[in-house]
Write a structure and sequence with these properties.
about 180 residues, alpha+beta, 6-stranded mixed beta sheet, two-stranded antiparallel sheet, 8 strands
Length: about 180
């Protein structure tokens, strides 16, 4: 899949949800050129970023002006070990505001995301890592499409998506 660029920023992980997800699927069925055009023209509903140092304070406003609906920032530290998630609602011509619960993936909380990330980090088998994510996926009510530079994940974020290929190699987890 192609790199997703929003404005001048290459984003690490973006999602289309609901109607935008359906429109992306339709564009992808038409071919790579249509999918690429969609990614350039339509902002994702959700951007997820891992913040290692301090966050770019103006980035949330820029994403909002581009049409992104929500930004999740994952903050992690090695010493002392800590993982924190922050959900931010974005709108054009409005200041970003913090959320206790996602508006894009209804019912999902920052604690849910931290739980899933920790489960993936410390899962010893693919099944344990997949189940860590599946727990939070089951909590949400809408389907989404994940778009990123690398190949799609081995598991589906859709409620009734395909199962992972048991014969494929394990994916990488943890710091890298």
């Amino acid at each position: 899949m192609a790199k997703v660029i929003i404005g001048r920023h290459e984003t690490p992980c973006t999602f289309y949800v609901g109607e935008r997800a359906e429109r992306y699927r339709a564009a992808a069925r038409e071919g790579e050129a249509s999918a690429e055009a969609f990614l350039v023209e339509i902002a994702p509903d959700l951007v997820v970023e891992a913040e290692i140092t301090s966050a770019d304070q103006g980035k949330a406003e820029r994403y909002g002006q581009m049409g992104v609906r929500e930004l999740w920032r994952l903050h992690g530290r090695r010493e002392p070990p800590e993982l924190r998630a922050e959900f931010i609602a974005l709108r054009r011509n409005a200041p970003p505001r913090r959320l206790a619960v996602s508006e894009v993936l209804e019912g999902l909380t920052p604690d849910d995301v931290c739980e899933a990330v920790e489960g993936v980090r410390f899962g010893r088998t693919r099944a344990e890592r997949t189940e860590a994510v599946a727990r939070i996926v089951r909590r949400r009510q809408r389907e989404s499409v994940r778009v990123r530079e690398a190949d799609p994940p081995l598991y589906s974020t859709a409620a009734h998506g395909p199962e992972p290929d048991p014969g494929s190699a394990p994916d990488q987890v943890g710091p890298g």
